[in-house]
Amino acid sequence: MAKEILIVDDEADIRAILAGILEDEGYTVRQAADSEAARAAILERPPSLVVLDIWLVGSRLDGLQLLDLIVRDHPQVPVVMISGHGNIETAVSAIKRGAFDFIEKPFQTDRLLLIVERGIEIARLRRELADLRQRTVAGDEFIGASGHHGQLRQMVEKLGPASSRVFINGPQGAGKEVVARQIHAASPRAAGPFVVVTCAALAPESMELELFGTENPPADSPNGARRIGLFEQAHGGTLLLDEVADMPEETQGKIVRVLQEQRFCRVGGSTRVEVDVRVMATTSRDMEAAIATGRFRQDLFYRLNVVSLEVPALRQRREDITALAEYFMARAARLNGVSPRPLAADALAALQAYDWPGNVRQLRNVIDWVLIMGGGTPGSPVKAEMLPPEITSDAPQTLRLEGASELLGLPLREAREMFEREYLLAQVTRFGGNISRTAEFVGMERSALHRKLKSLGVVAEGRA
Ligand SMILES: Nc1ncnc2c1ncn2[C@@H]1O[C@H](COP(=O)(O)OP(=O)(O)OP(=O)(O)O)[C@@H](O)[C@H]1O
């Protein structure tokens, strides 16, 4: 995006000089002669930086008052003050009030350009830092080893540079937001914000306020509660409508218009705000049913669903489980300041055999839990018996202690058969039903394994 500077000065010739210098350097420039025009311009579209005269003769607010408003309402926009010769004290006080820097009249072109460039760069770095902080908390890696994961990666690479809207389907906790973040990170908007609207968590009455913000309060109300909406916060970046099927119907209609026009009015306001935002959406719901029952607008669905992606349930891509479990272990250990614990083979087999109704989020929670609560000495391997009971109670009997004692009550032939059945079922499940890979792991010929499974009455789900 072109970097845009707003010049606010009551003197037309000063504005013209500044505009000439900045345009020569490739900046786009807008101009305002007084505080009201400046506020309207910022409201319409926040610039990359404001150059603001300390004295705004004939204006409703002077430069310092306008500075206060910009710092309060648009803290992400750096402001460079223009001070006349001899009023350095005022310029210093402007910096204390939140200005980025000041330049003195008459201007030195080099200094002006240096300050402007630095102001924009520092604002960008601040945004990036905030985003990085957010990613550290949210987790930013995209881990996996399955074929499904590989396909998703390819889609991410293709969709990143495209500007198309993306609709991501999949069960809860499967990683839909992670995929959306990856697409954003692979896009030319990567340095811009990534803003998530949690549609399910917002009360219908506050939804529009959150999305579109409220209009500026009157200039003379110092505590006026102006709110910048999420659409505006996402300017230059990506807005993710998470669980979009939960969005109230009236808001759906408004979103259709915003997607059409790329601009909107704040709640209670009439200024048209232009935004440059890539919109993505996720759902774990059956959208066809939501549309058929009238709970979701078809026109909005068509607008959002330009490209659709499916993130499968974790049990449909079990080959991701080991990589994810090891990643979450390393991450939890780092966050807790302790050593990671290796996952013993029986623990990994149990994790791979479990069905994960809560998907990747549940796996992350289990690993977080086992690191701290699993018992055993710090840094020692995590065994299957240390996993939460719901994981091992679903696992094949061979992985359970009581399974072993049950085996002891049987004659050898039956015990062997039971063991073989459970063992092979666990292995086939673990390799996502892939018979060739299971055969390789257990050390059998593929055709021999097939025969064996048949004779034991094991029905392998998935690929043969
Ligand atoms: N491939 C992955 N690599 C690393 N972490 C992942 C991956 N997939 C999911 N996660 C982690 O699992 C958790 C759930 O992921 P995410 O929030 O993206 O799921 P979701 O499908 O958007 O969930 P919901 O439907 O509840 O909004 C997050 O902590 C995320 O970091």
Automatic annotation (TrEMBL):
Annotated Response regulatory domain residues: 4-120
Keywords of the record: Activator, ATP-binding, DNA-binding, Nucleotide-binding, Phosphoprotein, Transcription, Transcription regulation, Two-component regulatory system
Sigma-54 factor interaction domain ranges (all copies): 142-372
GO molecular function: ATP binding; sequence-specific DNA binding
PTM sites of type 4-aspartylphosphate: D53
Record GO biological process: phosphorelay signal transduction system; regulation of DNA-templated transcription
PROSITE patterns linked to this entry: RESPONSE_REGULATORY, SIGMA54_INTERACT_2, SIGMA54_INTERACT_3, SIGMA54_INTERACT_4
InterPro entries assigned to the protein according to its UniProt record, in alphabetical order: AAA+_ATPase (IPR003593), AAA_lid_NorR (IPR058031), CheY-like_superfamily (IPR011006), Homeodomain-like_sf (IPR009057), HTH_Fis (IPR002197), P-loop_NTPase (IPR027417), Sig_transdc_resp-reg_receiver (IPR001789), Sigma_54_int (IPR002078)
PANTHER family per the UniProt record, alphabetical: TRANSCRIPTIONAL REGULATOR (NTRC FAMILY), TRANSCRIPTIONAL REGULATORY PROTEIN
Listed name of the protein: Two-component system, NtrC family, nitrogen regulation response regulator NtrX
